[in-house]
Each structure stands twice: as structure tokens, then as C-alpha cells.
Amino acid sequence: MELDFKKVLNKNLVGKGLRNTSVDLSVLKYYKQYAKTYADIHNGIAVLSDLTANWSFTYMGAIAERLHMTPSTRKLEINSIWEDFLLERVHPEDLAIKHILELQFLDMVKKMDPKERCRYQANSVLRVAGKDGQNIMISHQIVYLDTPGEEFPQLALCNYTLLADTEDLPSNRNYIFNQVSGEVYPIEKQDVKDIMSLREKEILRCIRLGMISKDIAEKLGLSVNTVNRHRQNILQKLRVRNSHEAIRIYNKMYHQEDTSL
Questions:
Q1: Total Cβ atoms within 10 A of residue 183
Q2: Residues near 245 by Cβ (< 8 Å), separated by ≥ 6?
């Protein structure tokens, strides 16, 4: 079975509306101000996502300079719940773990009493490419915000802040946390490298050999449309723009050289 955690998350999170929010505007205004204040105080990045409208508001602190984000890349509003301008800089293995954890988090809080949901947050540690391609260790937290009405979730807040260079990272650095009781729920055991299906790995091997979609389809007994769909899924999963980058990142995930899969 093909695993694509981002697609599953998107299906479970995004409402049917396009820009027409069902969130009370006074509530939205309150949380927008909170997100801006958080980014200013912590010098981080805060992303407030309206899941009912598939829209996000971003607020940048001083860390944006460390991440080498020019004014043109600091998008204040995004027609998506995904802050791709930042996520595309995250190491692919960390990104996969983040999506797995957030899917676990969403499934968990959906089963809770509505009064309890906002007591929980999911924490991840991400390697993010900064200036000169050097990785910067970033702490990421996501919470679902308290909103009126039965629809859930409506609003999510993601906060990105810098980790201290001298901070000792625990072996389990991806977990769900109850902010009141202090109870920690570790990420469910799952092989992150399984984000790539066997079929996608086959297609990547063919691409590595220089084969075009038509040749791959004939070799694997698939239609060209099916091959192209798999190729697009590969790019989305690995957060890359083309097949050459996909091969390089996939090799990196498996600690292999670029010359082989």
C-alpha cells in the first residue's frame, strides 16, 4: 500500500471552502495577533492555518534572516495550509517524520473530548537548510486552536524556533505532549523510509537509467499516465522540483552514493 502522509493529512484537514472561511472572524483576528506576537517575542516563524478555507497567515521573526529568506520569499498569506516556502528547506527524512507525527496527533485529538484537545501539542526537531546550505536545527510545534462550533479542526498554529547549538537532543525528539499533565506520547514506530512505495522505487531506478515515461511504462507493464502519476507523487513526497533532485535526496535518505539506488 502506497504511503503518502502529507496527502492523508491534507484530506483530513482541508475544508471544502476556497478562501471562504467558516471560522468566526473575531476569533481569527485574535489568533492572528497572537501568532504575530509569538513570532516577534521568540524571533521565530508562526504559521496560522485556516483549515476551513485552505489558507494560511505567516509571521516572521528575526530567524527569517538566519534562514536566508529574502523579503520576496517571506509570504504573508498562502493559498494553502502548507508553508512550502519553509518546508521545502527541511531535510526529507525529518519532513516525513513530521508528517507521520502530525497524522498520529490528528487521529489522537479527534477522539478526545473537545475540551481536552487544546491541551496537546506535537513537537518535532527539523534540520532546515540555511545560508550556504548548512543545516540549522529548528524546533517545531503544532497545536489545534480552540474555536466555537462543532467543526474540528478549524485552526492550527505552527511555530518554528531556533534550537540552541549546545542543546543536547533526546533520542526521541518527536512526540505529542500534554501541556497540563506533562504526559508525553512518543511517535508510533514506523519506518520513515517506507514513504516510498516499491513501485516508486522501481520507477526511480528506471529514471536513474535515463528512461523516459513511455519506456518505463513498457518495462513495468503500466500506462504512461500511471507512470507520470507516480513520478509526480515522488516529487511531492521528497519535496523536490525534478527527478534529478529526487534521486539525490532519496540516496541521501538511505545514506548511499548518487551513483546507485
A1: 11
A2: 238
Top CATH class of 196-253 equals: mainly alpha
Torsions phi, psi for 181 (to 5 deg): -85, -20
Please count the other Cβ atoms lying within 10 Å of the Cβ belonging to residue 56.
21
CA distances from 109 to 14, 16, 24, 106, 197 (A): 16, 21, 21, 5, 28
pLDDT in tens, 86-141: 888 888 888 888 888 888 898 899 899 988 999 999 999 999 988 776 788 999 99
- Measure the CA–CA gap between 193 and 101, rounded to whole angstroms: 14
Q: Output the nine-digit C-alpha cell for 215.
A: 519506456
Residue intervals in the chain for CATH 1.10.10.10 = 196-253
Range(s) within the chain of domains with CATH label 3.30.450.20: 5-186
Name the region of 255 (left: φ>0; alpha: ψ -120 to 50; beta: rest). Answer: left
- The DSSP annotation for 173-234 comes to --EEEETTT--EEEPPP--GGGGS-HHHHHHHHHHHTT--HHHHHHHHT--HHHHHHHHHHH
Chain mean position to CA 213: 28
Amino acid at 91: H
Residues with Cβ within 8 Å of residue 50, at least 6 apart in sequence: 21, 23, 28, 56, 57, 81, 154, 155
The hierarchical CATH code for the domain 5-186 is 3.30.450.20
For residue range 4-31, what is the model confidence (pLDDT) as tens digits? 556 666 666 665 444 567 888 999 999 9
